[in-house]
Every structure is written in C-alpha cells, then in structure tokens.
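The records we work with from here on pair a chain with its fold. These numbers are not coordinates but entries in a learned vocabulary of local backbone shapes. To see the layout at work, look at the sequence and tokens printed below:
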Amino acid sequence: MRNKHCILPWFLVALSLHAAAQIPNAKKTYREQAFLHTDRNCYLAGETVWMKMYTVNDDTTDGFHSAIGYIDLYNESSRMPSIQAKLLLDSLSHAAGTLEIPDSLPTGSYRLRAYTRNMEQYGLFYEKNIRIVNTFEPVPRLQKQKGLPAPVAYHLQASTNAGHFGKRQPVKITINSFDDTHAPIVANLSAAVYRMNALQSLDSPDIRQLAVPQQSHYLSKDTFHLPEPYNQVLTGRITDKKTGAPLQVPVMITVTGQSPRFYCIPATRDGDFSLDLQGYSGNADVIVQAYTPTHNGYLVTVYSPFTDFTPPRTPAFFTEENNDSSRTSAAMDASLQRQLLEDHIGAQVWQTFYGDSILPAPARFRDTTFFFTKPEEEVMLDDYTRFTTVEEVFREFIKTVMVRKYGDTLHLHVLNSQLVNPKFFDTDPLILLDGVPVFDNKRIFALNPLQLRKVSVMAHKAFYPGGVFNGVVSIQTYAGDMAGYKLDPNAMVADYSGTELPLQFYVPNYARKNVPSMPDQRNTLYWNPAVQTDSNGNGAISFYTGDEPGVYCLVLQGLSAQGKPCYTFSTFTVE
C-alpha cells in the first residue's frame, strides 16, 4: 500500500502536465472566421430556420478550432437577442442546427450572428440579415425583393437532370467541385432548395469572404473568455454574500436531467471557476453550490457564454414611405398579399400534416456512466419488494453501504472495496440526490422511498479536482426532481442550455407505394447540411418537388478540405 501512495502523486503530476500540453496557448491570437448558411432569408412566424455554420482558422499550421458555435437572432427595433443557440462544431469546424421561430415574434428585420468564444474575444463576428413576417398579426407594408441575380459559380458546379419539372417529380442534381486549376477537390457543402418569390431575397456569395482576412468593426471586450477547443466551458464566480470578497473554496456543479452529471472543482483565489462540459446538449438546469459546510453566506454567479455586444442597425425591409406598423396588409401590393396568404396556408399545412416528421438526428455523444468510473453497486429498486423507509432500503438492499446511528441522526458509511481487507469508511460519503450534493442526513432519510428509482455506489475513495470523498452514494428519483428536497438557499440554479440537439430535415419519398395523399405546399423542398464530394470532386443529391409551382433556387456552398470557399446558384421551374 505504501508503494501505491508514493506512485499516485507522480501519476497526478504527469496527468496534469499532459492536460496542460493539450490546452492551446491562450496568449496567441487565433483568428477564426465564421460563415452561416440558412435555407432561405425570409420566414413566417412559427417556421423553422435550418442553418449550417462554418469556421476557419487563418493559422493553418496550428490546427486549432473551436468546438462550440454561438448563434444570436435579434430584432432591429429592440436590438436584443430574441433567440440564442449553441452548436457543436465537428472536426471539420462545421455545425448544423435549427432555430424555431415563435408564433409571437413580431414582423421585422432581424439579424443572425454567428461566432465562437475565441472570435468574440477579439470582436469578430459573422452577420447576415433575414426578415420574419408574423401573419397572425396585422402586417406592415412590405418591400418587394429584387429579382433573381444571374447564376454564379465559384469552385463549384451543379446541374439538374432537367430544367422543368412537374409536381411531385424526382429531381437529381450532380455536383462537381474543383480548385483554381479546375483540378477536382473534396468539399463539404450545404444545399438548400426553396421557392423564389417576392418575399424572398438571395444573398450574394459572401462565403467568398472567407478567402481573405476580414476586419471587424467591433471593439474587443475587456473580459477574457476562455477558448473552447474541446467542449463548451461554463464559467462563474463565487463571493461572500456580505462583503463581496472572493471565496477560494470548492464549487459543486450539477447538470440536472434524467442522466445528471456531477462535478466538483476548485475556485481560484479570485473566486473564479471554469468547467469543461463534455457532451452537454439540450436544455437543463445547472445547480451550483459551494462545498463549505461552515460558510452559510455566499453568492454564485454563472456568466452567460453569449456575447453582450450591441449590434449596429440593420437595413429596413419595409418601404420607407410606408413604414408605419399601423398599415395593414390591405395597403400592400396585391401580389404580396397573395404570396403572404399562400405562404401562411403552406406553413399551417406543414404543421398539421408533417410537423411530426422532423426527427432528432443520431446523437454524436452518448454517455451512460454517471461517475467517471463504473460504480461497484447499482440497484434498481423496482427489482425488489418496496419498503416504507429509506433506512430499510439501505439496510436490506445496498450491500456496499452500512447504516449507522450517532445520537439522533442516521449516517451512511460506504465500503472501501479497494483495500486488501475491505472495511467501511468512518465518515459519511458524498451523497448525491439526482446529481445534487446533499448534506442533511435527516432529510435524506425522510424521503419517500417509493419515489426513488435507483441507487448507485462508488465503493472507494472518490477523487475530484475540488475534493476527496469517502465513497459516493447516488440516489436517483423517477421524475428527476429530487422528490421535493429543498435546495440550500445559497445554491444558484441557472438555466444554462447545452448544444442544440440536431434535427433531420424531412423529404417525402413519392417513389414509395401507398404514399398518403396529403397536400404538399412546402416552400423549402430540400435542406442538407452534409453534402460531400469525393476525391474526384463528384457528388449528388436528389429530392422530390411538391405541389407548389414556381421558380426554385438551388444554393450550394461550403468549404473544400483545404479551406477553399465553394459556391453555386442556379434555378429550375416546377409547373
């Protein structure tokens, strides 16, 4: 045993040196740039924005790239974010995501902003204008959009199997990607096909801006944000509630949910703490509290990872002479009124008949282990006869935990299974209720055992960066709500969303037999954020037209494996 204790410090030192070697040089300026491709540029309230974010690093020798992309949607009038989202960037610095536009969002000019925390530190952003029309409310007089620009191609060509198509017919598109010498290159692209009308506009191929360094018109922030090369980083500060002085104490953090996660990390002498949240996606609460049993008055602040820059004003999408919100759609051009009605009906038809067809994409990260190692004992309480007290549950079912009574309080002692002759620890373990550390044993034993689903035990010492515990007992409820257990009044509960859970765009397949006869009034026929060309520069996509006639735009854009921007735009007609 003595030799093991001698080896452990050297192992921890080597581990910390290895971890330090993996962290990028914070003093170096990494100039990342971003680009955002959306399926269209005009939406109705209640619709979905499908998008893909690209980032590139101007230092090709370093290999650094951020793991998390941030998206803000804000209104011209309020100039405050209406929707915010986080996207998980893959190894190619690409991320696909969606924004659900609420039915309550007012008509207006909006701006989508894409950035990483590394970009935000140096005041670098990518922004594009979109507009949103709320057809559930009176609509101000809209400005007609310009006609179609001439087809353009840049390191990319696309051709359809025909120039005109009927309703519900297959469309096949072949793709070729090439460099400046027309040699084939591998490209990762996103493809959008949507109906062009008086409401829609088409961006110029501004993805070509990624080919040259861009200067930002923003000023850099004074507060330094840690880059996120691997996962999103939660940052915050803990201070004394009365004096405001920073506290250098361990901080316990729980990510709630059906699969909760627990962390214990130390705060610096300035009271700051940061945590790498690996694989954290979806919406959940983050509960932060100090591991200071003798200190009752502390204040925890969790910083927002999103930027707080005030954006500049965006161009108006309404006629300047009639920009009065009291003017209703009756004052608009008849073609625009008709287009709004068609789009409104199409959106409602989609929600009614196809709304449940959008399914989550396969998860990229799946972690089913609650601890950083497999627990020695895991008991599903439904497998046994249910008792009426928590004390009986532990005495009868949990072999690696012993119940002891000191005075008027019951205690749980965990078995140290790593000893040659295992014995129980003399002090209480770390007790987690739905991932939240609890220190009041009387309230634990007062819980209703019929609300408890599972008990897991780590039957040995548990080492966290912020503390060492004599075992861990994890109790999980059915509802994940701590069975009514009240948190420490000093604990801070933050609505800290994780990266967005990706969705799969639905494309009906009319080649199948017995296809349900439902109206198909889609304005966006196709969206695919993962179109790939091979080593010969060849690729292909296919989809079906719907029931709406008109001119449809095909927009393909992305980056080659060497970071070369690629773009093409063309049209076809559905009759």
About this structure: DSSP finds five helices and 36 strands in the chain. Residues 265 and 466 are 4 Å apart (CA to CA). The two ends are 81 Å apart (CA to CA).
